[in-house]
Records
---
Amino acid sequence: MEQRVTLPRFPALHGWCNRLLRIDLSSGRIRAQEAAPYLPDYLGGRGIAARILWDEYPEPVDPFDPRNPLMIIPGALTGTPSPYSGRTVVAAFSPQSHPYCWFTRANIGLNWGNELKKAGYDGVIITGASETPVQILIQDDQVSILPADDLWGLDIIQTQDAIHASLGKKLKVMTIGPAGERLSRIATMQTGSTSVAGQGGFGAVMGSKKLKAISVVGTGKVPVANLEKLRWLYKEVGAQVRALRGPRRAFKEHLKRLNEELAPKGGQARGWACTAYCPTPCKLYLSTEGCAFQRHWEGGWACVSSLFRGWKGHPLYDWDFGLRGGFELNMYANALGLNHWELLVGIVPWLRSTNEKLGEFPKFNGRPVDWYSLDFWTQFLHDIAYRIGMGDALAEGAPRAASLLKLGEEIVRRYYTGWGYSGHWDGHAAFVNYIVYPFWIVGALHWAMDTRDPASDTHGYVQNVMYVGPFKRDGIVKNAPITWDHMRAIGERVYGRADVLDPLSGYEGKAIPAAYHAVRSVLKDSLPTDDQVFPLIYSLTTPDRFFRIGDIEGPDVDAHLFRAGTGVDWDTQELERAGERILNLERAITIRHWGRDRQFDERVIPSFEYDENWINPEIGVRMSLDRERFAPVMDEYYRLRGWDVQTGWPTRERLEELGLGDIYEAMIAGAKAARQRLPTLPSPEPVLDIHRYDPDRQDRLKEQKQSVP
Ligand code: SF4
């Protein structure tokens, strides 16, 4: 199929391009749609995706159905010099989600979204499917669907190199690897060497449409309302975040050590920003020769991927492949298009424990399991991406693979908190994020309410309370720059309660930060900003450790950025109201499509009802979630959202307040239809805590726990 059109433009807006690109790969139709009807109420990114989904999909479709809309939508400020604005949302019906493949999202960094905005688009929505491999080329107003038979079968790095060689080096390319081509439910979409829409399995949606790549180059500029104010905010935010991160010296010394280690093989390491317009680069970029492959690897090394190197003494990650070996596995998994989080936090811990605790996984495709062998790992990753032998089931993700292989079914949930996603800042399933009671209660609420792993959007509380507070993995920091007194005062200021940030508090008040950060996660995905940094709450340059830039308080910076970029004169309250509107719409979509309700939300509770992985140094005993004490916290969360406490459904009044009165009836009618359509799911079993299975101690602890707040 070859198709080429030149598209019209609509009246320009500040921040936005006022144009959405709609492509149907079945008919080959390419058209432009005005974005103004969604603006400013749905902001951009996640907001526009949810509104389009609601308007155009009264019923869910299978993720591999050609009708599944693959949406790639930057935010209102993407393409502008707003700090950390280079992020873009990917949304569709998700292959990875479980037990329902419901509509959800992922977030991708680097600069693909910037380039799309410079080409004059606020987003791309792709439906249909081609019979033969194709690629999409966007060059300002000219959009083409081109054959991609020569690209199909190449890995992600080879594909980008081939497109840069044939169509031009300036192109920003979004593509998939062998995993996506073979519809692996844990396949990623990727741009550059390392930036991925990791969670959700969206790479398989591209594969199901025979869509190999979407490349864009833009020659335009995104007009903004107040460039000077944006630049000033960029500078000020960057300065404060750098200060909060501590002296650069530590990062420089780390880089020096890495370069010394890489030098013998001519390798290099440098600091790297994983997102365009990031004023505080905190990631690594390496270039080195391979160990397992005769190949030069070059790219970013971010997030959980450092675990590929191994973690000395860790019960699940104690291999040691060194810097080059670990980086090579990172890049190889990228080239294959596989979700690192799913592999490292879910699949490998599950298989390892299944073998070590149950002796059930001695061989992988006829080869003895050897997590200490680089060659074993490369075959393991290859066979998952190419769906070879057991790799075929593993390509479905662990929750499905466990039942397909009848393997470690009783322990897989020890690593999966909910909805088909492995743990993340939950204090239980994830062994990589150090967090203790009572703070993971907020994480439990986020998991209960979301359609995917929520932590990628809610680091603002669960991560920051552990990163900036006085607790560290190995105990309490002496002379911590931010004390619990600072934290309690900030709790009072931001959430209206000091005990929200108190290590000796309990369940009370935890619904407040959960409700607050759920809305803030929507803003991060729709403005956008960086989830590792926003909302801006903590500072090391102010006496009370609360973030301020002149007379602008940290949590209000988002509204200042939005006003400076778009010219829309909203304050924080109106911006959060837009976030609330989008969150309620996302909720209504799950109710309309799947009849989701409170009982369904509570399916994640067993993932917290066993001993936490780490002990709060101030309490001294391991805690687990107490369902009876958690129930009133869920009640409060629903009340704060304006949702019915029994059903967990937005009330008609709440939806009308948010300008969504028109969706109420359809939401209710859809839920009724879904209940007739869907089989009743069995209640989730308690999670077998294989890491600390000691029945006697359980009871002993239960008595002790009664005495803790
Ligand atoms: S995680 Fe955030 S601060 Fe770090 S490089 Fe990426 S955008 Fe910058």
---
Amino acid sequence: MKILILGAKGNLGVQLMKVFANGNEVIGWDRSEIDITDRELILKKVDDLKPDVIINAAAYNAVDKCEDNDEEYELAKKLNIDGPKFLAEAALNVKAILIHYSSDYVFSGNKEDGYCEDDAPDPINRYGKTKFFGEKKIIELSGKGLKWYLIRTSKLFGPKGESEVSKDSFFDVMLKLSKEKDEINVVDGEKSCFTYTPDLALATRRLVESDRGYGIYHIINSNTCTWYEAVKELFKIKNIQIKVKSIKSEQLDRPAKRPKNSTLLNIKFDQLRSWQEALKEFLK
Ligand SMILES: NC(=O)c1ccc[n+]([C@@H]2O[C@H](COP(=O)([O-])OP(=O)(O)OC[C@H]3O[C@@H](n4cnc5c(N)ncnc54)[C@H](OP(=O)(O)O)[C@@H]3O)[C@@H](O)[C@H]2O)c1
């Protein structure tokens, strides 16, 4: 198959390039090759290439930056709403399958026992709203025959991408802090599932090669936890003896509200291994 990957230098994009390489013709584009907010360019370049599958791993992910800065919010809307819409139109034109990633932040987190694929999104911050509206743009083109997979995921961690916008994973940040401080404060809340980018990339390949129906999928590593529980596990594995103090979400003065429990439930796809197992591999 001819596979086009957007955001190819991002944290997830780099892993997708690796996983799809074997047995496929893979083309990776990042912002330097194409700006996904440029509709004419997207339609032309995709029509020239005629891929069988388009995977969009490009996105605006700065949750707090767009919450209290209108210019950043405009950029987030362009990247997370217009970008997926233009890619969906381009995919439809060349009869390609479109795979797009969304986030647990499309949900408010007010539901006690987590969210399954069919639950109605109700975002509580601007980033979440842009990811939700991006989802809707893709689903709207189903009626015109678009073949699509929408994969919601959460709390990505793994080898850092080659992109300047790619964030260090939570675990990298905590390991760095553990070398600088004797005590760190970590939120014991905001429950959701950590997801190892190599596992998510592999699961994406298995999904597109399976005969499962098009639609929304929740793909995350198993077991939900808070940030505090995650760092305790990290320091246990790494045998790091520093004091970890649990704090409330509100004590971290961040512009964007976070869902209390945005655990994604994977009802439709194979269960992935636990984040604890994936973390052990990552740290090795
Ligand atoms: N990170 C998480 O914890 C998390 C959680 C839930 C869902 N997700 C979703 O998972 C997907 C992958 O996230 P990630 O963490 O791998 O992202 P990332 O590392 O931040 O990478 C984003 C990529 O998008 C590219 N990009 C930015 N603006 C662009 C533009 N105008 N045109 C084309 N490409 C552009 C960047 O390219 P440059 O290198 O050129 O800037 C970068 O390679 C996204 O849909 C994200 O919303 C992530």
